[in-house]
Structures are given as structure tokens and as C-alpha cells.
Amino acid sequence: LAASGIRKKFRSLSTQGDLSRFGRNYKETGQYLEQIFPFLDVRFVAVNDGFDTLTAERSQDGYIVPLKNIMNEVYSRDISRKVSSALEVKQQRGEFIGSWPPYSYRKSAEDKHRLEPDPETAPVLKDIFKWRISGMGYLPIVRRLNELGIPSPSRLHYLRGELKSERFSDSIWHVPIVKMILRNEVYLGHLIQGRTKNDIASGRKLVPVPREQWVIVRNTHQPLIDENTFWAVQELAQECRAAHEESLGKFDSLGTIPNILKGLVFCADCKVPMSSVKAGGSMISYEPLWNTMKKRGATTYTLQAKGNISSSTIRRLKKGDSVSTNTLDALCKILDCTVNDILIYIPDTNA
């Protein structure tokens, strides 16, 4: 809408081919033509419809315009339904209808509705899953990707000329991107579409769709990740969520004890600040464990590789939660130390 004279005290001119190109919501269109434009001294001309706000205000055309606007809205909604139906048919046939393929895939040159692995980024995807399954957290994965200079998905589109905006020229990896990649079942070779929907005619924003209504077609393209690896990663994510939910408000009734080391002690692997957690009024600290590991030159990856210590157990150790005696025994064997080199019990002095 070229109304350059808005809010200026002279008559402006705006032309459109016909009223349907101006708007398809008859209420909003009528409000602009009958109230907003006259108030702003904007003259509107729809050439193909022979409509001019200067001459049609109380003429016969002035009364026909609302009917045309209603017809335009009905037609738009009909087109929206037909387009949506056509897209749903394509989805059910297992055809990809998105604008951008998922990371590490590209549209086939022979059939733009079929996905095929992107040889440039497929190895990166496999590394992301490999790092995660080894126990590496989301933030360390992001740091490694950025340190290696691997372009983020947005920056990759920019470098390939698919995105023109300069704001994508220096886009980097972030945790939400990695999380989204790690939970996407498309890497199993299944096409999952219809996660969101919108109404083209009304212009409503995308809204999420319940999973039971998603359109899932299996084995539509070459998988990049095997089933065991993918679902093991999902299990890790579930453990993280469960541990977080379990810790929420767990010891609020015990009050607070100032932690003089807060913000001073960090994990040697992921650089995340260490924290202590109360255990029933007393506190178990694994500070000796981290000191012992430092002396032995060991990392959390050492614990996983040599002692099969799970990533969930390592998270419990970092949070100060209790672990099984079998875990303590395994740690002692891996680090060749005693239990006193693993933990220290701090009684509740207020009890």
C-alpha cells in the first residue's frame, strides 16, 4: 500500500489492481475504505474494479464495494481450503513440502519432494549424535561446533546464497538448535509433517498440532542415524528432564546454607558452575572426587569409558545427589583410590 502521505495534510493516492489484492477480510477492508483512509486524507483507487474513494462515497459503487469484499473473503477461504487439502495429500504420500529441508538433508534434484543426505553436513550430524551418546552435554556440543568453525544451519543457508539477509552471515550454533536436531525423527528415515497449522485466508499464526494428528510416513528417505543411537539419545534427554523436575523444590523446607564456593568451582569438562545439594538436612559433597580426578588426569569421559558410569550418574555426582555403593566401588577401581577420595559427608550442624 503506497500511502506516502499518511498523516500529512494533503490528498494522497494509492492504487491497486482490484480490491481483492488490497484485502480479503471484508470487515478490515471496509474499515480502511470508509474510516481510516478518509481520516488520513488518503485517496484509494482500485483500477480493475473501477472504484475511487473520491467519487464512490455515496454513489451506487459505494454500496457494491462491501459485497465485493465479502465475495473476495469467501473466495479466499475456499482457495485456502483447497490448497490445504492438496498439501495434506502430498504429506500423506510421503512428499516433503517444506521450504527448507532438515539439517544434513537436501532436496533431490530429480524430485524436490524427496529428501536425500547432504554429503557436506551429514558427517556433522553423526558427530553431534556421537558426542551426545558419549555423555557430552548440549552446551559442550555447541562450543565444539563453534570452535571447529562448522557453520550453523542459518549461516550455511547464507553461505549457499539461499538466505540474503546479512544477519545470518555470522549466525552461530546455540543449544536450542542442537536440541531440535537431536529429537528430530526425520534422521531415522521417516517424514514427519503437519506439526503446526495455520489458516492462509485469515492470516492466523502457526499453532502447534497434537502429536496424534501429525502426518507420519515411514521409510521415505535414507536414514542418517540408527534406531539404537537415536532412542538412546532420547532416553538421555528424558533422564535430564526427570532429574530436573525431581530437584525442583526438593529441599526448600530445609532452608538455605550459604555456599562460600558458589560461582568459584567449575566442571573441568563442560565449564558449568558446580553446585552442592542438601540430602535430608545433611550434605554429601563429591569435591574429593573432582580433586582426585584432576590428580589422576581423568575426566568424565574416562569414567564412562573405563567404568561404564552412565551420564545420568555423572549428573547426580555433579549435583551432589546420592549414588549406589556399586557406583562408589566402580569409581574407586577406576581411579585407584579409597572412598574417602570420592566423597565427604557434612553433617547438619543445626540438627
Would you give an account of this structure?
By secondary structure, the chain is of the alpha+beta class. The chain is 42% helix and 11% strand. The chain is built from 12 helices and 12 strands. The strands form 5 sheets. It has a 3-stranded mixed sheet. It is elongated. The model is unreliable at 1-10 (pLDDT under 50).
Write the layout of secondary structure elements.
Blueprint: E1 12-16, H1 19-22, H2 26-40, E2 42-46, E3 51-52, H3 60-92, E4 105-107, E5 115-117, H4 122-133, H5 138-147, H6 153-159, H7 175-182, E6 191-193, E7 196-197, E8 207-208, E9 215-217, H8 227-247, E10 278-279, E11 282-285, H9 287-296, H10 300-307, H11 311-319, H12 325-335, E12 344-346
Parallel strand pairs: 1-2
Antiparallel strand pairs: 2-3, 4-5, 6-9, 7-8, 10-11, 11-12
Overall mean pLDDT:
77
> How much is the radius of gyration in Å?
30 Å
Order of helices and strands: EHHEEHEEHHHHEEEEHEEHHHHE
**Percentage of residues assigned to helices:** 40-55%
Compact overview of the structure:
This protein is an alpha+beta fold. The chain has twelve helices and twelve strands.
Provide key terms for this protein.
single chain, 351 residues, alpha+beta, 3-stranded mixed beta sheet, 3-stranded antiparallel beta sheet, elongated, disordered N terminus
